[in-house]
Write a structure and sequence with these properties.
Helix content is 39%, strand content 18%. It is of the alpha/beta class and 193 residues long.
Amino acid sequence: MKCGKPLEVEEQEYCFDCSKNVFQYTKGYALWVYDRNVKKSIAEFKFHNRREYCEYYVEELIRFYESKILALAPQVLIPVPLHRSKLQERGFNQAALLALGLGRTLGIPVVENYLLRHQKTKAQKRLNDKERVINLTDAFAVNPKYQNVNYSNVMLVDDIYTTGSTIDACAKVLLQKSTKEVYFISLAIGKGY
């Protein structure tokens, strides 16, 4: 198991996406399958400023994955960044709130702006899997402020993992910088594509 998607057949080692793609990240975990109820909850959190949901999300991530995260021993948690226009529009980065909550509880440093989303991209939810990869080509970069700061083992934090293209684009940038292992954790994961 690599991305954490539920398997259709228990005997399978990888989900459909992981069996047909080579991902840059090492491994990841997600709390819930991205179904109708989870979608509604995350939409309220992100688009209707329900930041108080974050406390519950972090508690659940800790309850299910504390030991697994600590076993991976990431040096830092890095939230998937928003483009500055999206951050200004929303007022907060939901991935950063999750990372800060996890970091505070687990004692792992969070570096909010280690990665930058320097290209404004189309919304991923409207794109197919190939378009998602193209959409994110060169969208992320290491913040010049951190050019001389290297981490060998990091965990990316995001709210939703669908096809893995966002996490993978971030992982690619980190691996080019000298990171050896990139893990991720997210609230929800798509089932299939």
